[in-house]
UniProtKB/TrEMBL annotation:
Database matches in Pfam families: PPR (PF01535), PPR_2 (PF13041), TPR_24 (PF23276)
Protein name per its UniProtKB record: Pentatricopeptide repeat-containing protein
Region entry Disordered, spans: 16-38, 84-139
PROSITE patterns tied to this protein: PPR
Encoding gene (name): LOC100382024
Keyword list, A-Z: Repeat, Transit peptide
Record InterPro entries: Mito_RNA-Proc/Resp, PPR_rpt, TPR-like_helical_dom_sf, TPR_mt
The keyword Ribosomal protein appears for this protein: no
NCBIfam families in alphabetical order: PPR
Amino acid sequence: MATVWSGCSTSCGSFGQELPPRGKRGGGEGTRFLPRRRGRIRGDARQTQALSAAMVTVGACVCRAAPCLLDSVVDGTEDVSVGFGGIDGEPLADGYDGGKRRGPRRRPTRPTVFQKEVGARTAPPAMASEPDSKSEHGVSRLHFLEERDEETLSRRLIKLSQNNKVRSATELFDSMRASGLQPSAHACNSLLACYVRRSPLADAMRMFEFMKAKGMATGHTYTMILKAVASNQGYVSALEMFDKIEEEEGSKKIIDVIVYNTMISVCGRAKEWMLVERLWRRLEQHSLNGTLLTYDLLVSIFVQCGQSELAIAAYQEMLQKGLDPSEDIMKAIIASCTKEGKWEFAMSTFSRMLRAGMKPSLILFNSIINSLGKAGQDELAFRMYHLLEKSGLKPDQYTWSALLLALYRSGRCWDCLKLFHGIKGKHPTLLNDHLYNTALMSCEKLGQWEHGLQLLWLMEKRGLKLSVVSYNHVIGACEVASKPKVALKVYQRMINQRCSPDTFTHLSVIRACIWGSLWTEVEDILEEVAPDSSIYNAVIHGLCLRGKTGLANKVYAKMRSMGLVPDGKTRAFMLQHIATD
């Protein structure tokens, strides 16, 4: 097979021909050579003898070309082909124009040594010598290398790859392989990284297969090729490739925790937390210790996917192995503990942050206070509030909402209302519908219907959105205070404001009317609402408790005619009524 060494054909046919006869112009003229970027040089016998020392044998063919170095391309410039000139201006057989340079020309290229070695293993015999149609650098020229030191050439290959000189790096790699020189694993990894950045995936895959066949693949090699496959073909293809690599005996000792981190990151971007968990367990099965990055990825992915328990488990395993978590990881764990209601674990994580000299943010303080508030730990919540002020931070709406909720959950409803009015006096701009609704919850629990109406009026005056939740709290306060007529007025106001009542609204109004003996209003509400088993069951319960068995029987018959299913308590009341009759 013919190859090209610095523009010189090494085919047997070319070297079997005699040199052209000497020219007639001037004595001592011989074959004229065209070195790179220079004009024609008339050689003499001594030049011919000197050039004969540069001989390379490929198969049974000898190339007498001048030596060619790649220092120019290492400096960032691409090389120009070296050609042979004819005699007396006559063109050569390949179309050379006798030295009339009209720009750099490149000789026809042949498949590279690298492609032939890898292609012979992957392609069918009939197609093994054909370059990949999808490859941009499937063919390249070969150069005669004066430098024979593998370490020096490997450093040169690394520099070319780092500068993204894909063609020049490929030519140097192929020339080294053709000369029997072996590039270092670092140089091959650098060329692979260059292919990943600037070439199609097919080039990177051929380089990867070459390195794996030669036993030069490292953990970094697997990391780069898996990232490239995931970027071009998706995480599923990358995971299938990783599974095949794990099954190979020669690769088991090479795969390290960094390769696992790569796959965890790839699956995490796709929000596939189940695959991430499986990789985490396989990491333990192969006796590999996770790094700080491993647990950072695990906690972040599990928190983003809403898997708080797995995130806390990964964090605990991280602490057991003596790794110090980052600030972001501890913030994510505190948020997960708030969601899961594990306020004690959140407090221990917060204490660890303070011991590490980290300065918690306002968001972190709010998360801790919210977690304590949901657990009804009002004293600890206010301690955190005082610590927040000492840190120089100013509370915002979320801070006050968490404190109000802490007081309400601990049963201190009057203190909740006092705190609300304190916020209204000192920070009126921070009041929003959430703070009002928390205060209305306290009014409902205390039966403070007048206070609830005042807050409802203030919300309308300030232009805040009145939701069905706000109306429900006020109607609930009227129910607790046995004010059915006021509850009906709030209910009518709600409908006039085009706020659609829900099931809780109807239940509260009906209960208030039943205990207020407003039977006509109860029947009117039943005519307005859509058929709902819970509403009819509540009406029958109330009527039976108030001794209105006849009306209860009427409502029960209507309920069964609409196909609604009574609950056990309703059936018991009806059976008791039948037995009494």
